[in-house]
Amino acid sequence: MSITLTIEPAFALAYQRYAEFVPGDVLRLYVRTSGPGTGGLFYAIEKDEVMQDDAVFESEGLRFVIRPNDFWYFDGGQLSYNPSYGEYGFSFSNPRLED
């Protein structure tokens, strides 16, 4: 199964600026819950390696990878960055997940 995900260049560049990732780094995107009993979901990111069956997306020298069990959350989504909010300007949207 393949997935579609848009990663804006500004998103990747801001991760390089604020999180000190560098071109060539592999960053895993995955789904987290916001805490016990809340039921809220959000994306998380951490440095990792490419694994078999990962979906791989490249932007501004960074490679973003997603495991198949997280495809449902990211498929059809967009990762954006709004510089007006500085280090808090990161966002994820996915119309397929809206009610």
Summarize the structure.
This protein is an alpha/beta fold and 99 residues long. The protein has 2 helices and 7 strands, in the order βαββββαββ. The chain has helices spanning 9-19, 71-74, and strands at 5-7, 26-33, 41-47, 55-59, 62-66, 77-81, 90-93.
Explain what the structure shows.
The protein has 99 residues and is an alpha/beta fold. Helix content is 15%, strand content 37%. The chain has helices at 9-19, 71-74; strands at 5-7, 26-33, 41-47, 55-59, 62-66, 77-81, 90-93. Strands 3-2-5-4 form a four-stranded mixed sheet. A three-stranded mixed sheet has the order 1-6-7. A hairpin with an 8-residue loop joins strand 6 and strand 7. The radius of gyration is 13 Å and the shape is globular. The mean pLDDT is 92.
| Individual helix count | 2
Oligomer: single chain
Task: Give the C-alpha Rg.
Answer: 13 Å
Proportion of residues in extended strands: 35-45%
Major sheet: arrangement of strands: 3-2-5-4
Uncertain segments of ≥5 residues (pLDDT<50)? none
What structural category arises from helix and sheet content? alpha/beta
Average pLDDT: 92
Q: Main β-sheet, in a few words?
A: 4 strands, mixed
CA-CA gap between termini: 24 Å
Q: What does the overall shape look like?
A: globular
Secondary structure tally: strands: 7
Offer a few descriptive terms:
7 strands, alpha/beta, 99 residues
Topology:
Elements: E1 5-7, H1 9-19, E2 26-33, E3 41-47, E4 55-59, E5 62-66, H2 71-74, E6 77-81, E7 90-93
Parallel strand pairs: 1-6, 2-5
Antiparallel strand pairs: 2-3, 4-5, 6-7
